[in-house]
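Morning F.,

Quick status update on the modeling queue. The single chain you submitted on Monday has been processed. Sequence for confirmation:
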Amino acid sequence: MTQQEMKKIISNHIISLYLVIVSAFFPFYHAKAETHENFSENNSHLLISPKGVATIHIDQINPQEEILKDTKRKARMQVTNGDFSSYSSDELYDGLIEIEGRGNSTWTMLPKKPYNIDLIDDSGEENLKPLLGMPADAEWCLVANYSDKSLLRIPLAYFLADMIGMEYAPKLRFAEVYLNGKYEGLYCLCEKIKRAKNRIDIKKLNNESPEEHISGGYIVEVTPKERLTSKDSFFVTPHFGSSVFAIKYPKSKNISARQKEWIENYINEVENTIYGDNFDDPETGFRKYLDESSFIDWYLINELAKSNDAAMCASVFFYKDRNELLKTGPVWDFDITFGNISQQFENMHEDGLFVATARWFSRLFEDSLLRKNTRKRYEELYEQVFRQIPLIVDVNAQQLINSGAIDRNFERWQILGEYVWPNYPPYQKTYNGELERLKNWTMARLSWFNVNLFTADEEKCLLLSNEKIPIRPVDPDEFKLGNDSLIRTVRGYDYYVWNDTIVTSSYELKIPKSGEYHVKAIDSNGCESSLSDTILFIPQGMSCPENPTMTCFVYNNRNNLQINFGENTENYTVTLFGITGRTFFNTRTNNRSLSIDTSAMPVGVYLLYIVSDKHKTTYKLIIQ
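Structure tokens below.
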């Protein structure tokens, strides 16, 4: 075993114990992972950075030169292992680069800057290297994830795209970045979208290619015209206003006038067919030009996340290989997604279609076969991939927390609990609160998909009856402390029945008092959902009952909880809640004892709620 591996194992044990102790006494200070010490290792196939969080030092050759967008500066870059990463020497780097600013609102509006990185050799030529185990290339970018305080939305979307088998999904790795000796925080070192064997693998094309090669390959991006420079090649189509089709490959300096004319005519022909009378004809309609399977996969990732840009505004890519159909993708730019957007936008909430209402897409989904195929593909992917999203978030967050990168990032950028464009309130004061918001929004979105995504009205009643709708706090941080009692479920239904008695049209409820809460949803046809999980709310100061026989206790047996009811013959309902209200165990018994298997439960604080015909008892339980 190497010294690095030994250090990593010891660290996991120390940090897991440290998080339990610190989070118990200083809930707003350090990040808290509700996971046990081997959590990431047991789910390593879900890690976005399987070998850990690296360190990147960038030092400009002339540090007096300001780094600007679209102006390259020469620098030296060292990519090294962090304290808990284990990359091999050939996956690291120590050499020259050219660096420039990148992004749009992320560059102009936010202080943590994103960058483009080109690897070069001593003569200034491109230097292809397999950075952090990704396929060798010279062109990379550093993504800042400033407004996404989970730092996981972009990595999650790209990882999902790869998991569902998209032809190409950008790869990335987590790394902490130092620029000219100053710590700049946790970034993602990410592949740039380009034509290459290990990226978008399409045929080469340039202004010297023969005429018979003119049908590919091409890469185009839908983007606002104002983001382009005078060097960029682009064209417009009748159904686009402020957005245009920018030709990303071949590059402007390498594309001939004939090739530009060809791809412009092809895209116009696609658009004319989409809006034509026979757009859904299987032979002459849109399927003659547009690859359906790539479109469906791209659409599902973007619609699930309610991507603001994907509504044919920006960062929408298409590529066309020689003698093949036009394919949609890759996915790109997901910082303003998964609910991380303010109320001024239409895509903040978990219900409803968003991307499907955009240009091209609204017309395409008038085709009943496309809707049917999209629904079928979603059901496949829900079982295989999408239902794992909370676990993917937890596994990767645990790795980032264990590395210390989360604490260092938010010491550098003290924005937890603060508004950063375009966040929506309430702003979480802890990293764990940000994770809960991301997971809660996504699970509510999936719940709405399960019932409503391209389903016929006659199917929805059965689907709704089988759907256990999620219930969660609006403000996880304050709910955990017993300070805020507003809970919500999935928006978009006509009525909600809270605790079998409170009927309201609101998907939110201000809890009137401490206790257990659950909810059902009812649609306009009177169809009811399954009952949600139960969430427990205990106001601040009420976590331990006043009855001296009802004491709080620390539970040290890691694998099993034994509850003895003595000589009582009452019926007992026993519920074990996580500190955020998630139900881990629930049963009703009239036995004198009960055993609960806790071996697979994460380290953390729990509430054991025991209700009998005569008593209610609450225990605080610490599993460590």
